Amino acid sequence: MTQTATNAFDEGRVPLDPADARPNDLAAFDQEYAEAQPPDFDEVPDGKYQVRIAAVRLGESQKHDPMLKWDLVILSGPLAGRHLFKNAVITKASLPFVKGDLKTLGLDLPRFSDLPNHLEALLDKTLQVTKRTKDEFANVYFNKIIEIPAGGAGDDLANTPQPW
Predict the structure, then answer these.
(1) Does residue 80 surpass a pLDDT of 50?
(2) Greatest alpha-carbon span in the chain
(3) Which letter does DSSP use for residue 125 in this model?
(4) Secondary structure class of 27 (helix, strand, coil)
(5) Pure H helices in the chain
(6) Domains of the chain
(7) Which of 4, 9, 66, 71 gives 90 a disulfide partner, CB atoms 3.0 to 4.6 angstroms apart?
(8) Which of 26-30, 41-45, 79-83 has the highest mean pLDDT?
(9) Beta bridge partners of residue 142, listed in sequence order
């Protein structure tokens, strides 16, 4: 029987500690599990946020189109520490928007095929974004790069929901 890789551990991209190879006895957690309440995380509301790029990688959409997957961490306000996610599918129609995002981040590529070599340079950049939801679809727009003073999260941008 062949096993299908379902995550980074199964694919061998994350080395396993030899101690992790032995079976775990989860019975010690039965009582706590029975009493535990799952966290109640509401969706991050629409609005403007100061964020840091925590991760960006090339992935693939369900239709097998290439896509940029962004993980953004909110830096200030009551939602500091929460994550916003942006998936930018790369097609001929969406290329101007992807190029606009990269330009906003200060990345001007002579050839788009060089993008994988520049993703690491985008990490830890801080920017202002706007999250907007229409129907069941949420979009995150890159507004501008911002400078965060050392030791601060900025000038506490309005992290309250904005009516659209």
Answers:
(1) yes
(2) 59
(3) -
(4) helix
(5) 30-35, 95-104, 119-122
(6) 47-145 (2.40.50)
(7) 66
(8) 79-83
(9) 129
